[in-house]
Design a protein that fits this description.
There is one protein chain. The chain is mainly alpha-helical. It is built from six helices and no strands. α4 packs across α6.
């Protein structure tokens, strides 16, 4: 078991300040679909253990970097420089997994 929290209160506050939490709510259905697909793909890779939240967040991070829905969110936030995008995609992917974990693994 990992000791650190998947998405800290400070990270949630940062995402809220930048309206990512509102973007999440607007795109909840799409993000659920994408996150479930990523989880299923991770299972199908044939590892001996099911992916945990941290594994899923790491894989989702890579997917969201290229995912059109997320790309539009970032582009619409005019003050996020390209150099800071990786920080936000990391926080957002962990936030998404933290919010949707039960829905994703529960079906």
């Amino acid at each position: 078991m990992r000791s650190r929290e998947l998405c800290t209160d400070a990270e949630r506050a940062t995402l809220d300040e930048w309206s990512f939490s509102k973007d999440f709510e607007r795109g909840r259905q799409h993000l659920t679909t994408v996150t479930r697909a990523v989880y299923q793909a991770a299972i199908n890779m044939g590892t001996s253990q099911l992916p945990d939240q941290y594994d899923l967040a790491r894989i989702l991070n890579a997917v969201l970097k290229e995912e059109p829905f997320f790309r539009k969110i970032v582009v619409d936030k005019l003050y996020i420089s390209p150099a800071r995008e990786p920080v936000f995609v990391d926080m957002f992917s962990r936030y998404v997994v933290a919010e949707l974990w039960q829905q994703v693994v529960g079906g």
